[in-house]
Protein backbone atom coordinates (compact mmCIF):
# COMPACT_ATOMS: atom_id res chain seq x y z
CA UNK A 1 0.00 0.00 0.00
CA UNK A 2 1.26 3.47 -0.93
CA UNK A 3 0.89 5.17 2.43
CA UNK A 4 1.15 8.77 1.22
CA UNK A 5 -1.39 8.19 -1.57
CA UNK A 6 -3.79 6.50 0.85
CA UNK A 7 -3.47 9.36 3.37
CA UNK A 8 -4.01 11.97 0.62
CA UNK A 9 -7.14 10.14 -0.54
CA UNK A 10 -8.63 9.67 2.94
CA UNK A 11 -7.62 12.99 4.54
CA UNK A 12 -10.57 15.03 3.10
CA UNK A 13 -12.95 12.69 4.95
CA UNK A 14 -11.03 13.20 8.18
CA UNK A 15 -11.10 16.97 7.77
CA UNK A 16 -14.81 16.96 6.94
CA UNK A 17 -15.62 14.84 10.00
CA UNK A 18 -13.51 17.17 12.15
CA UNK A 19 -15.41 20.20 10.79
CA UNK A 20 -18.82 18.62 11.46
CA UNK A 21 -17.76 17.59 14.97
CA UNK A 22 -16.54 21.11 15.74
CA UNK A 23 -20.00 22.45 14.88
CA UNK A 24 -21.74 19.77 16.94
CA UNK A 25 -19.42 20.37 19.89
CA UNK A 26 -20.24 24.10 19.80
CA UNK A 27 -23.96 24.08 18.96
CA UNK A 28 -25.16 20.52 19.51
CA UNK A 29 -26.28 17.76 17.16
CA UNK A 30 -29.59 19.49 16.45
CA UNK A 31 -27.73 22.32 14.71
CA UNK A 32 -27.06 20.00 11.75
CA UNK A 33 -29.66 19.37 9.03
CA UNK A 34 -30.78 15.78 8.53
CA UNK A 35 -28.49 15.27 5.53
CA UNK A 36 -25.40 16.34 7.49
CA UNK A 37 -26.37 14.11 10.43
CA UNK A 38 -26.43 11.17 8.02
CA UNK A 39 -23.12 12.36 6.59
CA UNK A 40 -21.67 12.59 10.11
CA UNK A 41 -22.65 8.99 10.88
CA UNK A 42 -21.28 7.77 7.54
CA UNK A 43 -17.98 9.62 8.00
CA UNK A 44 -17.66 8.26 11.53
CA UNK A 45 -17.93 4.68 10.28
CA UNK A 46 -15.51 5.43 7.45
CA UNK A 47 -12.89 6.98 9.75
CA UNK A 48 -13.29 4.12 12.26
CA UNK A 49 -12.45 1.74 9.41
CA UNK A 50 -9.46 3.93 8.51
CA UNK A 51 -8.28 3.70 12.11
CA UNK A 52 -8.50 -0.10 12.00
CA UNK A 53 -6.52 -0.15 8.76
CA UNK A 54 -3.90 2.28 10.10
CA UNK A 55 -3.39 0.06 13.13
CA UNK A 56 -3.22 -3.12 11.05
CA UNK A 57 -0.68 -1.61 8.66
CA UNK A 58 1.27 0.01 11.55
CA UNK A 59 1.24 3.42 9.85
CA UNK A 60 2.71 5.28 12.82
CA UNK A 61 1.64 6.34 16.30
CA UNK A 62 0.90 9.96 15.37
CA UNK A 63 -1.57 9.03 12.62
CA UNK A 64 -3.16 6.28 14.72
CA UNK A 65 -3.54 8.59 17.71
CA UNK A 66 -5.10 11.37 15.61
CA UNK A 67 -7.61 8.97 14.07
CA UNK A 68 -8.29 7.47 17.50
CA UNK A 69 -9.11 10.90 18.95
CA UNK A 70 -11.29 11.73 15.95
CA UNK A 71 -13.31 8.53 16.24
CA UNK A 72 -13.67 9.01 20.00
CA UNK A 73 -15.06 12.51 19.40
CA UNK A 74 -17.44 11.13 16.80
CA UNK A 75 -18.54 8.32 19.08
CA UNK A 76 -19.26 10.62 22.02
CA UNK A 77 -21.28 13.07 19.89
CA UNK A 78 -23.30 10.52 17.93
CA UNK A 79 -24.23 8.57 21.06
CA UNK A 80 -24.29 11.40 23.59
CA UNK A 81 -28.02 11.00 24.20
CA UNK A 82 -27.62 7.48 25.53
CA UNK A 83 -26.22 6.84 28.97
CA UNK A 84 -25.77 3.21 28.04
CA UNK A 85 -23.56 4.18 25.13
CA UNK A 86 -21.58 6.54 27.35
CA UNK A 87 -20.89 3.69 29.75
CA UNK A 88 -19.96 1.52 26.78
CA UNK A 89 -17.40 4.16 25.76
CA UNK A 90 -15.90 4.00 29.27
CA UNK A 91 -15.82 0.21 29.13
CA UNK A 92 -14.20 0.29 25.69
CA UNK A 93 -11.54 2.70 26.94
CA UNK A 94 -10.56 0.48 29.87
CA UNK A 95 -10.88 -2.64 27.72
CA UNK A 96 -8.78 -1.46 24.76
CA UNK A 97 -7.90 2.23 24.94
CA UNK A 98 -5.81 2.20 28.11
CA UNK A 99 -3.68 -0.82 27.11
CA UNK A 100 -3.11 0.83 23.71
CA UNK A 101 -1.90 4.12 25.20
CA UNK A 102 0.30 2.28 27.72
CA UNK A 103 1.98 0.47 24.83
CA UNK A 104 2.32 3.63 22.72
CA UNK A 105 3.88 5.61 25.55
CA UNK A 106 5.98 2.83 27.09
CA UNK A 107 9.37 4.45 26.26
CA UNK A 108 8.41 7.33 28.58
CA UNK A 109 7.29 4.92 31.31
CA UNK A 110 10.55 2.99 30.83
CA UNK A 111 12.45 6.24 31.42
CA UNK A 112 10.62 6.69 34.72
CA UNK A 113 11.41 3.09 35.71
CA UNK A 114 15.09 3.55 34.84
CA UNK A 115 15.37 6.70 36.97
CA UNK A 116 13.61 4.97 39.87
CA UNK A 117 15.99 2.00 39.66
CA UNK A 118 18.96 4.35 39.43
CA UNK A 119 17.89 5.98 42.70
CA UNK A 120 17.34 2.58 44.34
CA UNK A 121 20.79 1.31 43.27
CA UNK A 122 22.50 4.50 44.48
CA UNK A 123 20.77 4.17 47.87
CA UNK A 124 21.66 0.50 48.15
CA UNK A 125 25.31 1.14 47.29
CA UNK A 126 25.83 4.06 49.67
CA UNK A 127 23.85 2.43 52.50
CA UNK A 128 26.22 -0.55 52.47
CA UNK A 129 29.33 1.62 52.07
CA UNK A 130 28.42 4.23 54.68
CA UNK A 131 25.92 3.40 57.49
CA UNK A 132 25.31 7.12 58.13
CA UNK A 133 23.81 7.48 54.67
CA UNK A 134 20.54 5.92 55.81
CA UNK A 135 19.91 8.76 58.27
CA UNK A 136 19.86 11.20 55.33
CA UNK A 137 17.01 9.39 53.56
CA UNK A 138 15.15 7.36 56.21
CA UNK A 139 13.51 8.95 59.30
CA UNK A 140 15.52 8.33 62.47
CA UNK A 141 12.47 6.91 64.24
CA UNK A 142 12.17 4.23 61.57
CA UNK A 143 15.87 3.39 61.77
CA UNK A 144 15.70 2.92 65.55
CA UNK A 145 12.59 0.74 65.29
CA UNK A 146 14.21 -1.59 62.77
CA UNK A 147 17.78 -1.63 64.16
CA UNK A 148 17.13 -1.52 67.89
CA UNK A 149 13.79 -3.31 68.25
CA UNK A 150 14.02 -5.55 65.18
CA UNK A 151 10.45 -4.56 64.26
CA UNK A 152 8.65 -3.30 61.17
CA UNK A 153 6.20 -0.41 61.29
CA UNK A 154 3.23 -1.94 59.45
CA UNK A 155 1.50 -3.06 62.64
CA UNK A 156 0.48 0.54 63.30
CA UNK A 157 -2.04 0.25 60.44
CA UNK A 158 -3.96 -2.61 62.09
CA UNK A 159 -7.01 -1.25 63.90
CA UNK A 160 -7.23 1.98 61.89
CA UNK A 161 -7.60 0.43 58.43
CA UNK A 162 -10.16 2.88 56.93
CA UNK A 163 -8.20 5.94 58.06
CA UNK A 164 -4.88 4.45 56.97
CA UNK A 165 -6.25 3.35 53.61
CA UNK A 166 -7.67 6.78 52.77
CA UNK A 167 -4.44 8.48 53.88
CA UNK A 168 -2.38 6.12 51.72
CA UNK A 169 -4.59 6.81 48.69
CA UNK A 170 -4.31 10.57 49.13
CA UNK A 171 -0.53 10.40 49.52
CA UNK A 172 -0.05 8.17 46.47
CA UNK A 173 -2.38 10.29 44.34
CA UNK A 174 -0.52 13.47 45.35
CA UNK A 175 2.83 11.89 44.43
CA UNK A 176 1.46 10.69 41.08
CA UNK A 177 -0.19 13.99 40.17
CA UNK A 178 3.02 15.75 41.20
CA UNK A 179 4.93 13.53 38.77
CA UNK A 180 2.47 14.34 35.98
CA UNK A 181 2.47 18.06 36.71
CA UNK A 182 6.27 17.95 36.85
CA UNK A 183 6.19 17.65 33.07
CA UNK A 184 5.54 21.39 32.95
CA UNK A 185 9.11 21.88 34.20
CA UNK A 186 10.26 20.11 31.02
CA UNK A 187 10.26 16.87 33.01
CA UNK A 188 12.90 17.98 35.53
CA UNK A 189 10.63 17.72 38.59
CA UNK A 190 9.24 14.42 37.29
CA UNK A 191 12.77 13.02 37.05
CA UNK A 192 13.52 14.28 40.58
CA UNK A 193 10.45 12.49 41.99
CA UNK A 194 11.35 9.23 40.26
CA UNK A 195 14.93 9.30 41.58
CA UNK A 196 13.82 10.40 45.06
CA UNK A 197 11.26 7.60 45.34
CA UNK A 198 13.91 5.14 44.18
CA UNK A 199 16.31 6.45 46.84
CA UNK A 200 13.63 6.04 49.54
CA UNK A 201 12.67 2.48 48.56
CA UNK A 202 16.31 1.48 48.07
CA UNK A 203 17.36 2.86 51.45
CA UNK A 204 14.47 1.26 53.33
CA UNK A 205 14.97 -2.07 51.54
CA UNK A 206 18.66 -2.01 52.50
CA UNK A 207 17.82 -1.14 56.11
CA UNK A 208 15.44 -4.08 56.53
CA UNK A 209 17.85 -6.36 54.65
CA UNK A 210 20.71 -5.47 56.98
CA UNK A 211 18.53 -6.35 59.95
CA UNK A 212 17.15 -9.64 58.54
CA UNK A 213 13.61 -8.34 58.06
CA UNK A 214 13.54 -8.42 54.25
CA UNK A 215 11.12 -11.36 53.96
CA UNK A 216 8.27 -9.84 56.04
CA UNK A 217 8.97 -6.40 54.53
CA UNK A 218 8.55 -7.57 50.93
CA UNK A 219 5.56 -9.69 51.96
CA UNK A 220 3.97 -6.40 53.02
CA UNK A 221 5.06 -4.51 49.88
CA UNK A 222 4.24 -7.08 47.17
CA UNK A 223 0.39 -7.09 47.32
CA UNK A 224 -0.14 -3.33 46.93
CA UNK A 225 3.23 -2.51 45.37
CA UNK A 226 2.36 -4.60 42.32
CA UNK A 227 -0.15 -1.87 41.38
CA UNK A 228 1.17 1.15 43.28
CA UNK A 229 4.66 1.24 41.75
CA UNK A 230 3.49 0.72 38.13
CA UNK A 231 0.94 3.51 38.66
CA UNK A 232 3.72 5.85 39.80
CA UNK A 233 5.80 4.82 36.77
CA UNK A 234 2.84 5.59 34.48
CA UNK A 235 2.56 8.98 36.19
CA UNK A 236 6.25 9.56 35.51
CA UNK A 237 5.71 8.58 31.89
CA UNK A 238 2.83 11.07 31.65
CA UNK A 239 5.08 13.79 33.04
CA UNK A 240 7.79 12.97 30.51
CA UNK A 241 5.20 13.14 27.71
CA UNK A 242 4.49 16.74 28.69
CA UNK A 243 8.21 17.40 28.95
CA UNK A 244 8.67 15.97 25.43
CA UNK A 245 6.02 18.36 24.11
CA UNK A 246 7.85 21.34 25.63
CA UNK A 247 11.41 20.36 24.71
CA UNK A 248 10.97 18.40 21.47
CA UNK A 249 7.65 19.29 19.78
CA UNK A 250 8.93 17.91 16.47
CA UNK A 251 6.79 18.77 13.48
CA UNK A 252 4.08 20.22 15.74
CA UNK A 253 3.79 23.74 17.02
CA UNK A 254 4.51 23.61 20.74
CA UNK A 255 0.86 24.27 21.66
CA UNK A 256 -0.29 21.46 19.33
CA UNK A 257 2.37 19.14 20.75
CA UNK A 258 1.06 19.87 24.25
CA UNK A 259 -2.46 18.99 23.11
CA UNK A 260 -1.33 15.76 21.46
CA UNK A 261 1.00 14.47 24.18
CA UNK A 262 -1.25 15.95 26.86
CA UNK A 263 -4.15 13.82 25.63
CA UNK A 264 -2.00 10.71 26.07
CA UNK A 265 -0.98 11.87 29.54
CA UNK A 266 -4.64 12.36 30.52
CA UNK A 267 -5.50 8.86 29.33
CA UNK A 268 -2.70 7.49 31.51
CA UNK A 269 -4.15 9.41 34.48
CA UNK A 270 -7.50 7.66 33.92
CA UNK A 271 -5.60 4.40 34.41
CA UNK A 272 -3.50 5.59 37.35
CA UNK A 273 -6.41 6.67 39.58
CA UNK A 274 -8.23 3.28 39.85
CA UNK A 275 -4.89 1.48 40.25
CA UNK A 276 -3.97 3.67 43.23
CA UNK A 277 -7.42 3.35 44.78
CA UNK A 278 -7.19 -0.46 44.62
CA UNK A 279 -3.59 -0.36 45.90
CA UNK A 280 -4.63 1.87 48.81
CA UNK A 281 -7.39 -0.54 49.82
CA UNK A 282 -4.98 -3.49 49.67
CA UNK A 283 -2.29 -1.62 51.64
CA UNK A 284 -4.77 -0.58 54.32
CA UNK A 285 -6.73 -3.79 54.76
CA UNK A 286 -4.70 -6.72 53.37
CA UNK A 287 -0.93 -6.09 53.26
CA UNK A 288 -0.40 -5.42 57.00
CA UNK A 289 -2.90 -7.98 58.27
CA UNK A 290 -1.06 -10.33 60.67
CA UNK A 291 -3.50 -13.21 60.09
CA UNK A 292 -2.67 -13.49 56.39
CA UNK A 293 0.30 -15.83 55.85
CA UNK A 294 3.26 -14.16 54.19
CA UNK A 295 3.46 -16.70 51.31
CA UNK A 296 -0.14 -15.79 50.43
CA UNK A 297 0.82 -12.11 50.31
CA UNK A 298 3.66 -12.91 47.92
CA UNK A 299 1.32 -14.96 45.72
CA UNK A 300 -1.31 -12.21 45.64
CA UNK A 301 1.29 -9.61 44.75
CA UNK A 302 2.78 -11.69 41.95
CA UNK A 303 -0.69 -12.58 40.68
CA UNK A 304 -1.76 -8.94 40.50
CA UNK A 305 1.44 -7.98 38.71
CA UNK A 306 1.09 -10.78 36.14
CA UNK A 307 -2.53 -9.73 35.56
CA UNK A 308 -1.46 -6.09 35.08
CA UNK A 309 1.25 -7.03 32.56
CA UNK A 310 -1.19 -9.25 30.63
CA UNK A 311 -3.82 -6.49 30.63
CA UNK A 312 -1.40 -3.81 29.40
CA UNK A 313 -0.13 -6.16 26.68
CA UNK A 314 -3.57 -6.62 25.11
CA UNK A 315 -3.71 -6.02 21.36
CA UNK A 316 -6.49 -4.03 19.76
CA UNK A 317 -8.46 -6.26 17.41
CA UNK A 318 -11.51 -4.21 16.50
CA UNK A 319 -12.76 -0.66 16.45
CA UNK A 320 -15.94 -0.05 18.41
CA UNK A 321 -17.30 -3.44 17.36
CA UNK A 322 -20.56 -2.81 19.19
CA UNK A 323 -21.38 0.06 16.83
Describe the structure.
With 323 residues, the chain is mainly α. The protein has helices at 3-27, 34-57, 61-78, 83-104, 106-129, 134-137, 140-149, 161-181, 188-210, 214-247, 254-285, 294-312. The longest helix is centred in the C-terminal third of the chain and has 34 residues, at 214-247. The chain is built from 12 helices and no strands.
What is the secondary structure topology, with strand pairs?
Elements: H1 3-27, H2 34-57, H3 61-78, H4 83-104, H5 106-129, H6 134-137, H7 140-149, H8 161-181, H9 188-210, H10 214-247, H11 254-285, H12 294-312
Helix pairs in contact: 1-2, 1-3, 2-3, 3-4, 4-11, 5-9, 5-10, 8-9, 8-10, 8-11, 9-10, 10-11, 10-12
Oligomeric organization of the protein chains: single chain
Distance between the termini: 27 Å
Specify Rg, calculated over alpha carbons.
Answer: 24 Å
Shape: elongated
Helix percent band: over 70%
Summarize the main sheet. Answer: none
Mean pLDDT over the full residue set: 86
The helix/strand series, from N terminus to C terminus, equals HHHHHHHHHHHH
Amino acid sequence: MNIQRWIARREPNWQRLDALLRQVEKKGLKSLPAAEIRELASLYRSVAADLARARTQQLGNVLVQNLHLLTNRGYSQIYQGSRRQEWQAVVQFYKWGLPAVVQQTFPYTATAIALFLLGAIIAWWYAWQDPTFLSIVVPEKLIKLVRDERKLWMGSIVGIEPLASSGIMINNLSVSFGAVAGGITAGVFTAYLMVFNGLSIGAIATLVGQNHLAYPFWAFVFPHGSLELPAIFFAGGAGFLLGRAILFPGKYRRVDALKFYGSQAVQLIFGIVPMLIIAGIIEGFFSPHPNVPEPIKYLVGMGLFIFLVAYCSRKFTAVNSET
